[in-house]
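Shape is hard to put into words, and the shape of a protein is harder than most. The fold becomes a row of whole numbers, each drawn from a learned catalogue of backbone shapes. The outcome of that step, for a single protein, is printed below.
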Amino acid sequence: MSIASSIPHTVTRERRQPWLRSVPAPTPTDAPGQPSSLEPLTASLASPASAARTIPAVTIPAVVAAPQVPTCDGRLVEYANFDHGASTPALVSVKAAVDKATRTYSSVHRGQGWASQVSSHYYEAAREEVARFVGARDGDEVVFTRNTTDSFNLLARALPRRTQVIVFATEHHATLLPWDERRTTRLPVPLTHRDAEALLRDALKRSTSSRTLVVLSGASNVTGEYWPVERLAAVARERGARVALDAAQLVGHRRVDLDTLGVDYVAFSGHKIYAPYGAGVLVGRSDWLDAAAPYLAGGGATAAVGPLSTTWKTGPARHEGGTPNVLGAIAVAAACAAIREHRGAIEAHERRLTERLVQGLRDIEGVETFSIFGDDLDRAPVVTFTIDGVPSALVSAALSAEYGIGVRDGKFCAHLLVDTLLSDEDAEVTTAVRVSAGLASTDEHVDRLLTAVARLATDGPGTAYEQVEGRGWVPVDDQRETLVDLPW
């Protein structure tokens, strides 16, 4: 595996990485009367989903405590975070790792000072942790980037000339847009897994290029549905094509192994896996990356600079010019370590939440939920829906202002897919609401959401709203403070 460190051997005496430090469970800081996210929960609100039941506790990694947020009628409630699909809160262990690494932070790779040596060691160890997390193979490179969008733009720049790209129209814009339009084939939204295989096989047969890259998502950021990556990758390999996997919505929910899936590249973002510190990764085969021009020309990417020529490094450093986001990389590694350790508990927690959310929303009259492949296939804890007669932006605003619930409305940077899913709806329905749960979500949050959606579907918002330019729907009688204190 080409992730060799340039750090002097003496630094290896620092055996424990910052993300491996034992972190005690935080003291619950939920508001009085609110169930703690770390304790067994009993559904306490009238829910259209199911009868109240006691849920056995599972050991999941703790997230930084949810804030108390104001409602428009002056109450304070624990924030119900159903916007994990956009960005996740930090794990307690991730924050602790960043705090520890901050004490010895320095720029990496080119300093002899102790802090620089320790930071360099952490940074390269983070690369190894990420490699383990996705099952990187010998010869694969782990390149730290800003996010998934950055990773795929890097890969697009590294493609050999005349490489044909095949991508489904279902993809997030980060996966859909970086490629040269002149050499990109966009496949329509498939109806079933088998349909996806047939569309891909036909496109590969029609490709005339000697090099082809198939770009896939592991899970839809709109519906949460898992794609049949292993089957589609096998179709690609039949024709000698390479496969790049957008795992941004996958790695936090299901294990990813490059070899098992049969993919050549994988990209994901720290802020999707409880490490919101501005780093992402691209992992995959080194030949195209080492042959490409550096993604960022500058210090760190150079082996030698002369009056008339520059020699560039190979390996990850070739595309990591400038001072990298060391703390962001450490945060990603800490999240990868925590998810690997608690994978079973995370999946059990999310499976329960998904079942309650999907069935609960489907049972509410006037609510329409959406899927690509059909309602009964496995998915991440993500549900996209609309409410008859209530604009999606107003639904989102009312859930926030009246119930302290955070969701996402719009087209979720997947315009082609959302337009297709909504094509059978009323012509005025052009956007939807997305609920995405995760480790910051509790059963009480699910109860609150389902109760709120049922009330909105039956009675509409509980207060009057007006549209304000730049802010969207805003309660007319809003008792919340407009501004909050800046963190600095």
